User: Fold these one by one.
Assistant:
Number 1:
Amino acid sequence: MKTLRIVVACAATLVVGHAWAQEQAATMETAQPAQDVGGVTDMSRSDAGAPKGITRQQVYQDLLHSQQSGEKARLQDLYHGQ
């Protein structure tokens, strides 16, 4: 009898959890569309909406910036040149 109660409680929890998960997924899909800013597209996203990686030019600019600001030297001192 005790085992039957446990089985019924687990089944009820699974049903309620499944219904709650479907409700949460439905509310998350209703994101607001982005504002159109004069035809300028968001170049940080691919056509599928996934974030794009940064370009080689952006990496190079970050390197130059870190060298000029002294950040590169601080990081090398912190990690002992590794």
Number 2:
Amino acid sequence: MRTYTENLMTTNGLTLATGMGRNGIGTAHAAGAARMVKHAKNVALFLAAPFIGLAYLLAFPVIGFGLLAWVAAKAVMKNEKARPVALALAAPFIGLAFVTVGPVLGLVALAWYGGKAAMKG
């Protein structure tokens, strides 16, 4: 044995010289657990990477067309002659959005106020 290890063993006892603390949990175990958690995160990210890439691949065209439509709509709304035509073309889609989203928002509002009333009473 090396002199340093022998001094540790005679001064602090065998448990501290072997890497075990007073509570019985060694630093080697904590380091091994940390390595295992890091390894598990890396494996999980490796397995999830194709799905994350697929989500980006599917989202980019939608976001691009949405941005293009947004910029075009802003440009059309500045033109006084094209604005009424654009609003007339957009009216059915705006109405459809209200008809689709309206009942859902109404149910959410009803649940919200009902939940608040139930919490008070």
Number 3:
Amino acid sequence: MGRAVCRKCWTWHGSGATVCPRCGAPLAAGNAQLPGNPPPPPSTVTPPVQPAAATAARPAATVVSAHRPRRRRYLFIVTGALVLALVATLLVLQWSARAVSTDGTFSIQVPNGWAHFTGRSLPDGATSTIDLMVLLGPISDGVQAHLVVTSGLDQPACRRVVTATSATAATRTTVAGSTALMTDCRTSTVGVEVITVNHTNHAYTIALTGASGQFDRLRAGALYDLLASWRWN
């Protein structure tokens, strides 16, 4: 065998020696590595390790990508539900503002500033007994605007002022698809618009009363809106 080396004290010895005479440690073959010259690392190639941040980022991106369509569907569903709820609320509020006749044959949208009257004494002194609907409007020049709907061809409002009024010729019109005749009666203080409607072979009379100075505005505003909202049941 060739020269030997002591791995404990790193001293060299001649051939044939098996134990270090200095420290008594067994000797190794002469090709052992000296201190400061460690053996080369194994030649096996280890695959590179991905950085922790990059490794963690991929699953997170995959999760976000997978949940994004679900989140969008959820938002669409919630938005649709809110829109439907809003529409239903508006319809309920709109219907709740409608006045229905006492016989249930028609309903109308109460104009802004008007109220559905259910009492007996009308603003012009008459007593409401067989009226199908009465609406009370704003007061102008000491006269409270009001609208009365009765069954039949009775026209009490127009008859009360006809002796001191000028009445226009009746003009044809329609109320919710039913044929009607419209007559305008006037005095110096009061104006009355009378509309007779024929619906399913039954007559209805609609009479709007208001102060003469504001009557044209009432007829073009509240009365127009009321007739436009008229619905037969």
